[in-house]
Amino acid sequence: MDPNSRGPEEYGHDDAQPQSRRPARDALTQDFDRHAPALARTVQLVSGDLLLTVNPVDGSEIENCPPGELPGRPAKHAPAERAALDRAALPPVPPGPSLPRLPLIQRDEERDRLVRLLARGRSVRLTGAPGSGRTTLLDAVAEDCADLAPDGVVRLSGFRRTVDDLLYELFAAVYSTSGFRPAREQVADVVRDIGAVVVLDDLEFGGVALDELLDATPECAFLIGATPGIPLPSSDAPLEEIVLGGLDRAGSEQLLERVVGRALTEDESNWAGDLWFESEGLPLRFTQAGALLRQRDRQRAGEDAVDEFGVFQEAPSVDAPYDASDEYDVPLPSLAEGAAPAALLASRLGASARETLRFAVALGGEIPHQAHLPALVGDTHADAALGELVGCALVTPVGARYRLAAGVRTQLEAAGYADDAGTRAEAAAQHYAWWAGHPSVTPERVSAEADAVLAALTALAPATTPPGEGEESAAVVLARQAAPAFAAGRSWSAWERALRAGAEAAALADETAELAYFHHELGVLALCSGQLERARAELEASIGLRNVLADKRGTVAGRRALALVTDRSGAAPPGGRTAAGEEAPASRHEEPAAPSGGVPSAYPPVGFGVAGPGATTGAAAATGGGGSAPHPPAHDSTLVTHRPGGASPAERFAALRSLVGAARRNLIATGSGALLVAVLGTVVTLGATSDRKDDTPAERVGVNPSASAGVDDGGLVADRPKTGGDRDAPGAVSEPTDPGLDGTYGTSDDPTPTDSAGPSDDPSGTDGPTGKPTPTPTKSSPKPTPTESEEESGSPTPTPTPTPTPTPTPTPTPTGGSEDPPPPDDTNSAGAPTSGRAVESTAAAPAPGGGSPGGTSA
């Protein structure tokens, strides 16, 4: 394919788009030509039941994964894949001549005991001081146990790892998880069936956390390496404890001879004895001492010796013992130099090796991968420096990488290797930022170099200052480039550490846009981990910052993630609105009509957000508090009723998940409306059937007083027409209410005419053609309730014939006029209506939204 004429299959072009043919240029012109910017690398992966799209530009997007894209139960790696993973778990082989492998000395007893315990399925913790040869012994035991378990041997590193990190790494070492990161519960379900010998070195936790790790993997036998400073496991943990000590004097001298490659002289033997007493027989000290003696041998056979003996004259043999009278003999190192040999060893190394040590000190002891050393050091052959450092025992393997050996960093800092550490850390950050964002670098490679990248971030983030005009903060740029790669590589512990370091650096550098991005990513990470409250806080902070910046695309991404948090939490935020200003689903207040009693609800009884406006709770209705009853719209959705009984958070979450599409907002309206109807019915019944004693005014007057002659005008009081508005219509009469507890009268507060008013508990109602009271019930009001006298006699009491009297009698009944007096208060001191008619008039009044109060009919 001609690179100057791109085909339709490249870069997303199709056949319908015309292709431009650029003129051919030579190679030099193309190198100086301006290249098109590389597209942002987005990666999609499934996390639990969520679909995560890692977007390094606007922020990652997250949504519910479609059911068809959810992966099934993972399968185990094929033998070839498993072999490649086992090789990748080992530290890389340094370039250059191969180094001799040192044998185990005086460790046969511990080795055999460890193998026997692991063969019986027992887990063992091997405790040894730094430099005691713990890692070397673990490697030897791992080789002996290769065929013990069905899933073989799995090597893990506990350095800066948590329980969740180790469980995920164990899961990934045995099962294929391409594009899928299972949830914590799914991982626990799968690793329970893994049967392997797990070699876990450099563990940094114990106690309850270690018990959790052992309980989650009952079919695995663990061989754990730890230092004495790590907390012990619990007393009832199924774990054997073996303490690894130092070598004796004979073993120390034997190891020193194997490192040097020759027999020791008497002076060297005496020097080794003093070193053994000072170091307590730690093998690391004698390995470094052997490197000092090898350097002394090379100095003895150096350039001066060639000039003295000539080209064809043989120099003294390296294997021959030294002669104290030899003028070319180099003196032995002092005891202090043998106890702390790092500075002396480094001074005799090459320039690239010394510069590598300076970078390691600046990165907190982390040795960059040998592939990065040429770019960092500035030497094309700097990768060979790793071989020099390993040969001098200045570095030690930690998992699949190298770190400075125990005590080396302190010794190098005292020798001045920490000078200009900030400059080298910034240089490393700039290099890693370019490398992590390069399209050719896979997320898995970036995740493998996570410790060195995070070390550069940790060194730079606290010292970040606002950059100058046109400049960028190295820590912020590195976090922006590395964090999406960690997320795509499913190394979420490193993802979180990078985001937090980036947020700290962005806050110190006053870069608001970058700070909003880091908060958004932290919210997405918390949502994937199931920490909903933390996710809500991070996303709200990000949306607030992006609203200030008018970042529309970033704000939309944050709102979508926050909506998913609200949906999973099952409750609306306070006020019924999200941080983005959108109405939460749980805050809507449409309450559809429902059959009497409703239907059982499968939703949990708590956590349904804020009720809509106009809805009154049951407590407010029971106490006669303010607020009107909710007015449901006219549609035929089913109203669910509140089913009492608490539920655990897991049960509530499962219920919400099973009925996501239903109308959850109707539950509050159901309880309040049903309680309001019950209270109104009780008050009406009590007002209609209240006990009337002889000394009450209601007994003397009656519910429907008979018409009597007025004393002022000689007419019938009942024949007086109403005044004002509809009351002036022909045939409209005033209907007095029952007297209250204080003996006064009141009028109905129903402003409608009598022929359209709703019925009351008054048995008289309106006069029919026979003179008997005829109740006029409406469609939305209950039937009239007979009075107590009617219940005893079985028939309504007839109204006596009115007889006019000329004598004026003052009555509390209002007279006709241009203005009616205000009606008296129809409630007693307790807040309940004083008459059944007043209550019925209020209940019979149509609601503003149509229908009846409470959403049901009596």
Task: Describe it.
The structure is a single chain. The chain has 858 residues and is an alpha/beta fold. Among the domains are: 102-244, P-loop containing nucleotide triphosphate hydrolases (Rossmann fold); 249-335, no CATH class; 589-688, no CATH class. It has a 5-stranded parallel sheet with strand order 5-7-8-4-9, sandwiched between helices. Helix 5 (163-174) packs across helix 6 (184-191) and helix 22 (492-509) runs antiparallel to helix 23 (512-528). It is globular. Residues 1-36, 306-327, 574-646, 658-665 and 693-858 have low confidence and may be disordered.
Which helices and strands, and how do they pair?
Layout: H1 27-32, E1 43-47, E2 50-54, E3 61-64, H2 79-88, H3 108-119, E4 123-128, H4 134-144, E5 153-157, H5 163-174, E6 180-181, H6 184-191, E7 197-201, H7 208-216, E8 221-226, E9 239-244, H8 249-260, H9 266-279, H10 283-300, H11 303-309, H12 335-339, H13 342-347, H14 351-362, H15 373-378, H16 385-391, E10 395-398, E11 401-404, H17 408-414, H18 421-436, H19 443-448, H20 450-460, H21 474-488, H22 492-509, H23 512-528, H24 532-549, H25 552-569, H26 618-622, H27 649-658, H28 666-688, H29 697-701, E12 766-767, E13 773-774, H30 788-793, H31 836-844
Parallel strand pairs: 1-6, 4-8, 4-9, 5-7, 7-8
Antiparallel strand pairs: 1-2, 2-3, 10-11, 12-13
